[in-house]
Write a sequence for this structure.
């Protein structure tokens, strides 16, 4: 009987079995060979050159397990690469960087030893990634808005770098006692008039939240903006147009902006404060526009053992915290500034212009008079109070119910200056002939000081009360003070908050849907809710509406839904301006 011919490897087998390879006359499985803790003929090398042997190995449990592990590893690697690409795109959008930064961010990741692959590393894909992220955020927002029931819109306008009118929109809502503010959209518009802006608001809500126009105005309860006429105009402003569709709409001119306007009016009404701020602005420009002056100031700081800072701009933005930071920098640099001004005013250095010498001489004369030191210190104390108020009003969680409490605290602190000077003024009064080691000239007697304090305090109090308490929504705002739980009366009274609830229900009743809450049960549940709140206040120092909801939601669902509605109302539109 003739012997069976010797079997040999056939190259066409690799097309059917892509994992197959030959080495030293033996067949190996690349799939199994690449995984740890594997064994078998196709790991050590097989000389069984039969297709049936290959088919048997392909169906083996070990081969299938190794193949699954490779696929999983490949999938994980792809996910990791895409995660890096999406994170880079998100960073581009978050920081407002151009899409052209995306490729080199990917290259930077490679330099860090991260695998980002060779695909998708271009500006077009960056744009697509950002749009995908934005759509995912919109989907999440749609989901939570369904739970929120009511919401408010905050809007601010700008002209972007392409000289195109644009509106930025934020949405505010509350769920179970916790208020949230989320970015909604940045929309280019053809014209910055009330009808176009209103149309863009409605269209954005329809597109982004998938709400019909009818549902939008059934659930829209608040509108916040700055004081621009196109927004708050009583005849044809955006707020007025929206109120025609929703008469119950609570509209508010941003309280943080009102505070800035009250301070600006105060400065304009008193010549000494206005001239002082103009002097500080001139000092800022003196160093901002001259590298030589900054270099010389740095030398003066080193000689006085003071950390070098560039003088800030008191009018850099309309926000008071910026002004406060500039004044704090002034006092930190005071000895070094005086030394620099004095040296410049008497220098014979030809590189110093006569204009700079004249300015330095004027700054030195102004800042080394006792009147300036005292008035600037008094103003710093007052701005210190106002900048805290400004930050509080800009806070995301600030609601209209907090406004009166915050304002009363600020007014009380200002009035106390009549009895006891603030920290900055105390430091100025502690020395008579010098200040921070710098000799000062002139006098400022007690009568003059008392008059100045009353002018500053009374002037600010008048403007704050006029600007922050005046307005069409003032009665509603006053009725919301019960939202500040820490200010509830120490003793439980049956009457507390009843009138406020009545006023608010009368205003919002037309939009209190039966599917969400039974408004007729709210007064009754309010009495029950007070019982729960006082029990919780006795055992907790920091009581919040979130904590109240956790305990009383099942018992007082209607009144707590109403509280959510009130917490969804805005106190400012600062988030919009900060979003640009």
């Amino acid at each position: 009987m003739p012997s069976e011919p010797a079997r040999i490897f056939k190259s066409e087998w690799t097309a059917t079995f892509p994992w197959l390879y030959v080495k030293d006359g033996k067949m190996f499985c690349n799939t199994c060979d690449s995984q740890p803790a594997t064994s078998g003929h196709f790991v050590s090398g097989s000389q069984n050159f039969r297709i049936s042997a290959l088919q048997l190995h392909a169906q083996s449990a070990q081969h299938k397990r190794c193949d699954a592990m490779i696929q999983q590893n490949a999938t994980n690697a792809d996910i990791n690469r895409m995660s890096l690409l999406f994170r880079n795109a998100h960073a581009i959008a978050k920081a407002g960087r151009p899409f052209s930064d995306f490729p080199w961010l990917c290259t930077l990741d490679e330099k860090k030893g991260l695998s980002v692959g060779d695909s998708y590393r271009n500006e077009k894909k960056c744009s697509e990634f950002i749009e995908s992220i934005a759509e995912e955020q919109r989907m999440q927002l749609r989901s939570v808005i369904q739970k929120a029931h009511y919401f408010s819109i905050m809007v601010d306008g700008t002209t972007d770098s392409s000289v195109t009118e644009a509106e930025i929109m934020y949405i505010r809502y509350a769920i179970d006692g916790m208020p949230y503010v989320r970015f909604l959209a940045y929309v280019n518009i053809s014209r910055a008039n009330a009808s176009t802006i209103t149309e863009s608001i409605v269209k954005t809500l329809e597109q982004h939240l998938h709400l019909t126009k009818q549902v939008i105005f059934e659930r829209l309860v608040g509108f916040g903006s700055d004081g621009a006429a196109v927004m708050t105009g009583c005849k044809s402003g955006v707020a007025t147009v929206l109120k025609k569709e929703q008469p119950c709409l609570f509209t508010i001119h941003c309280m943080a902006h009102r505070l800035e306007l009250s301070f600006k009016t105060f400065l304009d009404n008193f010549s000494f404060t206005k001239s002082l701020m103009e002097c500080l602005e001139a000092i800022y420009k003196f160093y901002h526009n001259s590298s030589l002056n900054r270099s010389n100031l740095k030398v003066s700081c080193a000689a006085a053992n003071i950390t070098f800072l560039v003088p800030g701009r008191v009018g850099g933005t309309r926000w008071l915290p910026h002004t406060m930071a500039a004044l704090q920098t002034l006092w930190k640099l005071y000895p070094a500034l005086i030394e620099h001004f004095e040296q410049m005013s008497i220098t014979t250095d030809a590189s110093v212009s006569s204009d700079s010498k004249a300015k330095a001489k004027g700054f030195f004369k102004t800042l080394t008079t006792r009147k300036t030191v005292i008035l600037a210190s008094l103003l710093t104390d007052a701005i210190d109070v106002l900048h805290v108020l400004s930050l509080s009003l800009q806070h995301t969680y600030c609601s209209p119910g907090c406004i009166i409490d915050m304002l009363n605290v600020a007014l009380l602190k200002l009035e106390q200056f009549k009895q006891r000077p603030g920290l900055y003024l105390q430091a100025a009064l502690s020395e008579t002939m010098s200040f921070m080691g710098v000799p000062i000239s002139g006098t400022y007697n007690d009568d003059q000081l008392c008059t100045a304090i009353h002018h500053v305090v009374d002037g600010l109090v008048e403007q704050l009360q006029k600007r922050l308490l005046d307005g069409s929504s003032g009665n509603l705002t006053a009725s919301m003070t019960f939202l500040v739980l820490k200010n509830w009366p120490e003793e439980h009274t049956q009457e507390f908050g009843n009138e406020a609830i009545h006023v608010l229900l009368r205003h919002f009743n037309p939009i209190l849907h039966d599917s969400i809450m039974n408004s007729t049960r709210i007064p009754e549940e309010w009495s029950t809710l007070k019982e729960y709140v006082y029990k919780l206040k006795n055992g907790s120092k920091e009581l919040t509406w979130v904590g109240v909801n956790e305990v009383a939601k099942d018992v007082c669902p209607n009144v707590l839904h109403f509280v959510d509605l009130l917490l969804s109302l805005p106190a400012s539109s600062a988030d919009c301006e900060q979003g640009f």
Notes: The chain has 26 helices and nine strands. The two ends are 92 Å apart (CA to CA). The CA atoms of residues 394 and 578 lie 10 Å apart. The beta strands are 20-23, 26-29, 151-159, 165-175, 178-188, 220-225, 250-253, 434-435, 438-439.
